[in-house]
Structure formats: structure tokens, C-alpha cells
């Protein structure tokens, strides 16, 4: 793995603040404009990235989910990196663990992950990040139902809280998640080296970084919280 101190930054090409101010766009529209501008200036990106052989690059992307689910800029960027620059790519979708507190937000996250997977068409891992923030607040057995989404979580609980006119929509969503059965999450605690290493080993496997890599299973104790309290 090579190391590079220089970090190309899209803000050297175009600034979201300038776009919002000059074009009178909101943050989402501005961001889409910036990405479209980047796509028209791929020479800039190629030059900034420079030459890479056996290097491991991380592209830190903005959190606005619309970029990955609604418009085709990401697939175009991915194609450029894959076909022209010959990168081996792996997408990592991060959902923050505090989302588990609200099941509707959690399932919206699951569906966005699914939508991004379908849109990007590259090896993909889903990560439940900031796991330390919910430690001790959820039982291990219960947590497993979130890491490997159990559609019944939605069916049982949401139907009891929503207006009956939404029940068939809830059922359709449950059915969709069940039919596709594509999404599961790897737990991540960014301050914990072993947890980061486990994620990296999945990425290495997805990109065939080292042919002899075996992905590590997250250890049971990493999933363990207090058995007393539930969220
Ligand atoms: N407790 C805890 N905090 C974390 C963890 N990872 C990141 N943070 C903190 O969360 C805050 C927001 O960081 P991120 O979630 O990485 O933000 P970001 O992804 O760059 O933001 P967007 O790209 O705009 O979505 C920072 O203060 C981080 O230090 C973690 O594993 N646990």
C-alpha cells in the first residue's frame, strides 16, 4: 500500500458555497451542479489523482443520499474510474447506528442502501457506523435483527403506529426488502482498531486486493451490549 500526503479536493475545482450563492441553488441542487461540473472536468480529476500502482485510495463522498439514488452522476464517475483509470472499486455505504432508535428512519436507510447498490453496480458493503454510541442500549439478539435487517421489525411495530391507510404500503416495503434480501450491515466503531481492520478485510476481499484474504467475521463480543436495556 502506498502512502500519499497530498489529498485532491474537489473544492479546488468548484466550491458549493459559490455555486449556491451565484446560481441561487439550495444545498442539494448545488451539490448536483458541482458533481456535474466535475464530470465535465474529468481531466482535472485525472491530473489531481496522478499515477497509482498498488495504491489504496479512499474517496470521501458527501452524505446527501440523493446523489446516489436519484441521478446518474455517480455511475458515470464510477465508469470513468473503472474503465479509463482501471481502478478496482468497492462502495461503502455508512448508516449511523443512532438511526436504529427510529425504525422508520432505519428502514429508509436500508432502502437507500439497496437503491445505491442497484444504481452503482459495483462491489458494495454496508456499514453500521458509530456503534459505540448505542453500546449498552440494545440487546445482542435484537441488534442482529438490525445488522441483517429483519423485515418483521417494520411489519410488527410500524403498523401499530401508523394510520391503517399506510398498512398496505408498509407491507409492500417489507415484501420488497424481503424479496431482494440484499442488505446487511457490518458494525464499525471508528476508534476500535479491530473493528476497522474487519471492515478493511471485507473491502480487500471485494476488490481482490490480496487474493489470499479471508473476510473476518465480526467477533461476537463486538456486538455485545448490556442485556438490560433496550432502545
Ligand atoms: N462516537 C463516534 N463518533 C464518530 C465515529 N465516527 C465518526 N464520529 C464523529 O462524528 C462526527 C461527524 O463525522 P462523520 O459522521 O464522519 O461526518 P461526515 O460523514 O464527514 O459527514 P457527511 O459527509 O456530511 O455525511 C465527527 O465529530 C466524528 O468525530 C464513531 O465511530 N463513534
UniProtKB/TrEMBL annotation:
Q: Where is the composition biased (Acidic residues)?
A: 220-231
Q: What is this protein called?
A: GPN-loop GTPase 3
For this chain, the family text in UniProt reads: Belongs to the GPN-loop GTPase family.
Instruction: Extract one GO BP annotation from the record.
Output: mitotic sister chromatid cohesion
Annotated keywords? GTP-binding, Hydrolase, Nucleotide-binding
Determine the domain of life of the protein's source: Eukaryota
Q: What is the annotated role of this protein in its UniProt record?
A: Small GTPase required for proper nuclear import of RNA polymerase II and III (RNAPII and RNAPIII). May act at an RNAP assembly step prior to nuclear import.
The UniProt annotation puts the region (Disordered) at: 209-231
Q: Where along the sequence do coiled-coil regions lie? A: none
Any single GO molecular-function term of the entry would be: GTPase activity
**Quaternary organization:** Binds to RNA polymerase II (RNAPII).
Q: Which organism is it from?
A: Neolecta irregularis (strain DAH-3)
PANTHER family named among the record's database cross-references: GPN-LOOP GTPASE 3, XPA-BINDING PROTEIN 1-RELATED
Amino acid at each position: 500500500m502506498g502512502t500519499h500526503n497530498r489529498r485532491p479536493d474537489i473544492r479546488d475545482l468548484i466550491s458549493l458555497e459559490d455555486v449556491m450563492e451565484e446560481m441561487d441553488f439550495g444545498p442539494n441542487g448545488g451539490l448536483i451542479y458541482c458533481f456535474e461540473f466535475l464530470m465535465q472536468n474529468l481531466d482535472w480529476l485525472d491530473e489531481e489523482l496522478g499515477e497509482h500502482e498498488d495504491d489504496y485510495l479512499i474517496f470521501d463522498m458527501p452524505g446527501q443520499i440523493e446523489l446516489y439514488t436519484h441521478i446518474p452522476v455517480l455511475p458515470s464517475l464510477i465508469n470513468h474510474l473503472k474503465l479509463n483509470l482501471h481502478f478496482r472499486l468497492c462502495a461503502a455505504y455508512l448508516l449511523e447506528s443512532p438511526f436504529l432508535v427510529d425504525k422508520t428512519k432505519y428502514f429508509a436507510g436500508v432502502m437507500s442502501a439497496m437503491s445505491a447498490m442497484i444504481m452503482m453496480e459495483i462491489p458494495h458493503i454496508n456499514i453500521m457506523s458509530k456503534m459505540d454510541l448505542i453500546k449498552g442500549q440494545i440487546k445482542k439478539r435484537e441488534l442482529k435483527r438490525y445488522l441483517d435487517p429483519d423485515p418483521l421489525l417494520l411489519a410488527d411495530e410500524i403498523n401499530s403506529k401508523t394510520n391503517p391507510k399506510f398498512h398496505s404500503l408498509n407491507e409492500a416495503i417489507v415484501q420488497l426488502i424481503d424479496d431482494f434480501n440484499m442488505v446487511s450491515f457490518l458494525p464499525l466503531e471508528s476508534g476500535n482498531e479491530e473493528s476497522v481492520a474487519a471492515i478493511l478485510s471485507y473491502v480487500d476481499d471485494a476488490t481482490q486486493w490480496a487474493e489470499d484474504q479471508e473476510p473476518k467475521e465480526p467477533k461476537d463480543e463486538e456486538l455485545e451490549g448490556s442485556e438490560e436495556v433496550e432502545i
